[in-house]
Structure formats: C-alpha cells, structure tokens
Structure prediction request, 206 residues.
Amino acid sequence: MFARMSVTAGGDVDYETTGHGYATRRRADPRIAAAIHAALGDARNVLNVGAGAGSYEPADRYVLAVEPSARMREQRPPGAAPALRAYAESLPFDDDSFDAVMATITVHQWSDPMRGLAELRRVARAAVGVLTFDGDALDRFWLADYVPELIVAERRRYPRIAAIAAALGEGTEVAEVPIPVDCTDGFAEAFYARPEQLLDPRVRAA
Prediction:
C-alpha cells in the first residue's frame, strides 16, 4: 500500500548483522518506482527516511537520505545520495525542510512508527509518501497456507494503514501498489510466482 499526502513497535531486525546483499537483492522494481515517484509530485528536493541501500531514490531530484545502519549505508552505490546516520523518530532537520519525504518498506522497523510518521510530516512542505505492507491483507500471501505462524508474526509488525493515514493527516490518499509477477525487488512477497527462491539463503539474507 502507498499512503500519499497532497500499532505496533518494530525495530526487531539487527541490520548490522543481517543486512547482507541488499544492494543486489533489493533492487528497485521500475513499476513500483514509478508509483513512488509519481506520488512525490513535482518536489525538487526529497528526504528518504530509512533509506537502506538507496532503492527507489529518484535520480532526477536532489535527495538526502537518512539511514541508521552503517552496514546499509556501506551498500549504497557510488553516486548515491548522501546518507546521514539518524532515526525517523528524531529527524535532525527544521520544520518544512524538504519539498517531499519518502519512506519505503521501512516503517515497520521503526521503534515508534507514529512518532516517526509525525516527524516525516513535520519536515515535509508537501508530499509524504509511505510504501508499506497491509498487515490486514497478509492472508492473501501464499505462505499463509503453508506457514500461518509467519503471517501472525508479520501482522504484528505492520502499523495499520488507517493509523498511517491518520498520522499523515487530512488529505492522505491510500492506493494499492501491485507486486509484478517478475518483481526485481527481493522482499518476501515478491516471490509468489517463484517460491523456490525462498530456499536460497542469499535471498533470505536480504
């Protein structure tokens, strides 16, 4: 789901020890990227919070990244936007510092998602885009038939879409973003047509 502006606590993954292979396995899918970039509107400068290795950062605008994990910052490719060590819950910027703010598949890893979302809203002059998964829709995921315990655990991690929209404020739009059958971004849900890929330890590591 993509919440665009016109719970549960996360932070349960230690990316310093487990954040391997993101630069190669978690490559931006161009169709998902198009939805994200369209939601940013005509913003000329963008803050990417929880930026990881830099997937989905637009190349045609000025981007500044925030990423607390040193391992993830190390994986950012040459020429990527500069990345600061900071946390979503306490962004080191003045109010209205950026035209737009984006947060891509990260909000479930924040220790206080609602505080982090309030920070995104505070530093953005206009658009705030959050790409996340809908915990209430995880039963649609094929693994629900095989590993229902995984769905129960995952559902606890994702803030509800309604809570995200409320935190971003009046005028927030929510739209479903389809996952292509040949999605190039290696998050778990992307392998619904290639389940054997989840047996690859390199895929699981990312």
Remarks:
- The domain at 2-205 is CATH 3.40.50.150 (Rossmann fold).
- Confidence is low (pLDDT under 50) at residues 1-10.
- The radius of gyration is 16 Å.
